[in-house]
Amino acid sequence: MKALRFSSFGDVGAVLHVEELPTPTLAPDEVLVEVHAASINPSDVKNVQGKMKQTTLPRTPGRDLAGIIVAGDKEMIGEQIWAAGGDIGFTRDGSHAEYIVIPRRGFRPKPKSFSMVEAASVGINYIAAFFGLIEKAKLKGEETVLVTGASGGVGSSVVKIAKSKGARVIAVDLEVLEPEKARQLGIDLALSSQSDDIVTRVKQFTQGEGVDVAFDCVGGPLFEIALNSLGLGGRQVNITSVGDRRVSFDLLDFYHKNLTLFGVDTLALDLIASGDVLEGLRPAFEQGLLTPPGIARTCSLEEAVEAYREVDNGTARGKIVITFRH
Hints:
Order of helices and strands: EHEEHEEEEHEHEHEHEHEHEHEHE
Mean pLDDT: 94
Number of domains: 2
Radius of gyration: 20 Å
CATH topology of the largest domain: Quinone Oxidoreductase, Chain A, domain 1
Shape: globular
Distance between the termini: 11 Å
Helix content: 25-40%
Number of strands: 15
Structural class: alpha/beta
């Protein structure tokens, strides 16, 4: 089988390449999945660059996939599945290959209405969004949510989940979202981190109350701005930090307002827990309440190194999904 591989850490163009490997053998509790589609996440790029400390080498990257079970439990053969997260791509070979081995409890049936490409685009983005917004921040209907990096993979997933729960959404990006895209996402207020006084605009929009939840997909310079946008009893979720990893805030204001800060890292979720999130989201996808992330384009495995470069330099406007012909 063909697989994307790296045997050392470094620039994706220098260390990442396609190799011919034997088709994997199975342990009794595993299945062999014929991969039909697998998306490329920023964390895949960071993995190749050596920024994920748990990775063992040599390794096939890739954290999201959709495919068909072709070996293992006879009752499961032919089942169309999706999977994401856990140790795949780090200490277990990942999805950027024609075949992948997965524990029997580590996958779930993909939404019937989804193509393989759509199913492969959902995983890590929606898992991070759901775990932070619902499991940690306990979003309630009719609350107001501030989302930084709202047009990104996780940010747009947060927006969609929040709207499906009946929340109002304030979206923050470098540039104000185009009115048509904001309308499609159901965004109630679109702001620019470069030109808007975010805290003041938030106070105006909420009649001085502040937001109930801030989901910060940027960190760094926007961390304290998001925190200052919270109202009494507000909750903030952080998943990364662009630029300076150290931040500061007014501790007196923090505890006087009874604020709560959550850190969320999907790497802490194993395949089973990640699969449980996907299964929990599946009915909303099948009912059309949630939609997959925007797909920038698809590519072949041979074109994947260049696609990694696009994800790394931020020129990909949406998800790039590797597709396989079987």
